Amino acid sequence: MSTENEGNEGTAAEAVPSVPSVPPVPADAPQGSPGSTPAPAPVPAEEPTTQATTPMASVPATPPHAPHAPHGPQSAAEANWPPPPAVPAYASHGAGGGGGPVWGAPPQPQPYGPEGPRRKRGMGGLVAAVAAAALVAGGIGGAFGYWAADRDTSGSTTVSAPANPQDLKRDSGTVAGVAAKALPSVVTIDAQGGDGEGGTGTGFVYDKEGHILTNNHVVASAADSGQLTVTFSNGKKYGAEVVGRAQGYDVAVLKLKNPPSGLTPLALGNSDQVAVGDSTIAIGAPFGLSNTVTTGIISAKNRPVASGDGSGGSNSYMSALQTDASINPGNSGGPLLDARGAVIGINSAIQSTGSSVGQTQAGSIGLGFAIPINQATNVAQQLIKTGKPVYPVIGATVSMDEKTGGAVISDQGAGGTEAVSKDGPADRAGLRAGDVITKFNDTVIDSGPTLIGEIWTHKPGDRVTLTYTRDGRTATAQVTLGERNGDS
């Protein structure tokens, strides 16, 4: 997600997961030209920097600087109505995945968001540079080997026989074994907008019918009039089309136009049963380098992450899985696997080290965020069924100030409407303006964004328990979540 979001003070917004002080950047957030090495510059006195999360969906060919997340107060949004579609800095857009921001593109916390600086296709330069370096290294090594052999006074030369293919097999429980089994089901997505610009992201086979699961910010730039190409690890390419997109969740489902036979969907795990410290394996195309495998652990759960386009657009929200597996622009939409090879999340955003006007440093610092697969699966099933997302709501507008010790129900909703919708879920449960929601079932709620992130891990019709305070007293209420259709 390539948009960084900072806490908004004194404003209300739909219940959405809180964002770290510095919003995460989409894995696909645009990066500076990888082929160049800046000359050392004088080191100025240290100044505090602001971190941001950036979406990492895709990597534009010629990475532009990443867009920055909005820095002012957010506009109010209804807690029972998903905010306007987030604009991720995604793969296709220089700003993030597919062009978009965290949870792709280049906004400061580049988590989500289809808009943002777009990069012209230029990853080929990076790949070419890498290839050239490899050839040079190979040439030097070969020359040295010849020189050494020519001066060998022992009168004998040792020649290594090619490895037996059987010797290269690894046990299924090893990282190598898991990667070997998963790679054929992971794809690199090339999203080209109608203007010819785009980016690269990742996805994976969801079912045998040819559905591919990825981030919305990876494909947003090419969803309407662009072109989507999916490349498997064996190099075979297929055209694809969008089945449905959920901007708020930053999830999208594609369908291969002519799916090959024998597709193997990745096994889906249970993200609710993941524990901090569990091993993780991430697969994707960081900076366009397809089929890259990295490892780490689950660093935290239920991490409230909001990502946007970094230019004032609406945000996407998730109660994310945090991992220290290396994730970079281009990883967006790819699977986060457990030690058995089951998908437990969709890599979507990264935390950036900081940013300044016109520039964003987006790269792995060991703080990556993934959409829990249980949530992503609920969204994917809805998109495949109807093509449109459905969001669970409580029917109340909450403040987005992160320093309230809970989710405060605002005095007014968007446009001067009632903060608690009449006859809505919150109203029927007896909640009213000024109440501070402190727990959602057993999860502690410290802000409006955190509440929204938790609500969105459920489905409409789910019955939940809200703990809140009013006039210094604590009470609980049983709430049956309502629903809101679409992203508009």
TrEMBL record:
One of its GO terms (molecular function) is serine-type endopeptidase activity. Residues 1-119 are annotated as: Disordered. Gene3D superfamilies: 2.30.42.10, Trypsin-like serine proteases. Residues 392-472 form the PDZ domain. The keyword Transmembrane helix applies. The chain crosses the membrane at residues 126-149. Keywords: Hydrolase, Membrane, Protease, Transmembrane, Transmembrane helix. Residues 104-114 have a biased composition (Pro residues). Residues 1-19, 46-60 have a biased composition (Low complexity). GO terms for biological process: proteolysis. Belongs to the peptidase S1C family. This is Putative serine protease PepD.
